[in-house]
Amino acid sequence: MTAPQPAAQPTASYGTGHTPVVELRGIRKAFGDLLANDDIDLRLRRGEVHALLGENGAGKSTLMRGLYGLVRPDAGQVLVDGRPVSITSPKDAIAAGIGMVTQHFALVAPMTVTENVMLSSVGLGPLDLAAARRQVKDAAARIGVAIDPDARVEALSIGEQQRVEILKALVHDCRVLLLDEPTAVLVPQDVDALFTTLRRLTEQGLAVLFTSHKLHEVSAICDRVTVLRRGRVVTTRDVDGAQARELAELMVGRPVTGVARDAVLGFETDEAPAARRDVDVPAKTVLRVRGLTVAGTASQGRRALFDVKLHVDAGEVLGVAGVSGNGQRELVDVLTGMREPVAGSVEVDGVDLTGAGPQRLMDAGVGRIPEDRHASVVPDLSVEDNLVMEHLDEFRRGPFVDRRKVRAHANRLIEEYAIKAGPTDTVGSLSGGNMQKVLLARVLDREPRLVIVAQPTRGLDVGATEYVQRQLLRQRERGAGVLLVSEDLDELLALSDRLVVLSEGRVAGELPVQEATPERLGLLMAGGTIEEVTA
Ligand SMILES: Nc1ncnc2c1ncn2[C@@H]1O[C@H](COP(=O)(O)OP(=O)(O)O)[C@@H](O)[C@H]1O
Ligand SMILES: [Mg+2]
């Protein structure tokens, strides 16, 4: 009897040196001035789980959507089994054996699992239901999931819906499965089930490419990882043996230890704000949050925020870091009265304001500069009307609005905040920077005790960014507390005195800015614990 030759085993041929099942060469995609994908090369091997790791905005979805024909790259080539293919629509991708589960499921809620799965292949035409059910069952068995082919999609959990999406891809005979942030919407148990499914698929020779910003997922399931940063490939490597720290650093960028805050803002002028901690205000707590828990939407799992504890002192900027969608929005919503928590408490200046609405919070001295500036102004109204609309009562004389008083108020703020517009210009006609200045003026002129601000410089040019950041530091100098939510680490490090990191709705850790390096923050953002980070 001869011993079995290793080379005869099918899996042994899926190694290096063989033609990749999919190869991307020089993929480039710009959105206006922004290069979302910059000359990207990527090779997918049969039987591997390949992670596309990167921070929010790194270009992961764009690359994947390009490969699936949902986005048209400006340049580059796609090869399937070594042969160039042209993919200009999902139909082309499916024909080439590429399937994709997008971030937002495309299921028809009132229809059954079988109907949904078959919809993409046979459309709304006549359906051999018995055959279709069998096909769905077979596909489910292939990946080891139990799913009732007759269940209505609307009755399924998010995890189950995701399985239906995977089945949809599998009935098309796909050989490469693309999953965009598949775990973002899942609870931990469903994540485990998904990983088991992916393993089953790769054992059958499929290649899986999935995007993630969570290091622990990458090390748990992936064979290889490609790290993207600002649209470029930083590296492709085996996951085996890769240090989480190393990957975090690759993901977030330069290995900076000290933080040149002032250099970021360019504070060499005599306008420079007082050095941190020299601020002469008693360290009174203006915001105290305990046990804050907020229910999640269906796509978030049970809770959007869980047991969050934090505080902001007067004269302090507390930065809130985190990958988008980890509870930041819900935190801001609760603190500005737009949403009620299911548990926990919110105290402002020692007064319990749990569950208070926007007006009460505003009256209590909370100023809010929310993420969506377009939704915070009325674009069709003038600059002057937008500046007074939250406090119109103060501009009334009898039943009428005192237009002269409104105009004078507007002129003063236009001057003080260097808004490049006239009082009667509609806010909708302003640039992003000037619109943000209108918002800042409206909120900050009232000298709030606590400023809640989210993504204050997103989309602004350098000049406007610096202006906005200075204004926020000014609030801190006059003794207000500032809670700053931002996805821009440089901004957080430049402005914050302390930072908390939100991960999956919880406070993953807290660091004084002196100890907060991008690497440490990146680790916490990616699901690490404070013990791991400060070890
Ligand atoms: N349709 C679009 N129009 C304009 N900009 C876009 C579009 N899609 C993505 N972008 C931008 O391209 C960059 C990369 O986005 P994306 O691929 O979604 O990143 P990721 O999936 O890694 O978070 C981001 O700056 C994003 O704002
Ligand atoms: Mg994405």
Give average pLDDT, whole number: 84
Task: Note the gap between the termini.
Answer: 55 Å
The level of helicity is 25-40%
* Domain module tally: 2
The spatial strand order of the largest sheet comes to 6-7-8-3-9-10
Instruction: Report the principal-axis shape.
Output: elongated
Number of strands: 22
Overall structural class, as computed from helix and strand content, comes to alpha/beta
Strand composition percent:
15-25%
State the fourth-level CATH superfamily of the largest domain.
P-loop containing nucleotide triphosphate hydrolases
> How many distinct helices?
19
**What does the radius of gyration come to?**
26 Å
CATH topology term of the largest domain: Rossmann fold
- What profile does the largest beta sheet have? 6 strands, mixed
Can you list the ligands bound to this structure? adenosine-5'-diphosphate, magnesium ion
Low-confidence stretches: 1-16, 254-282
CATH class of the largest domain: Alpha Beta
CATH architecture annotation name of the largest domain: 3-Layer(aba) Sandwich
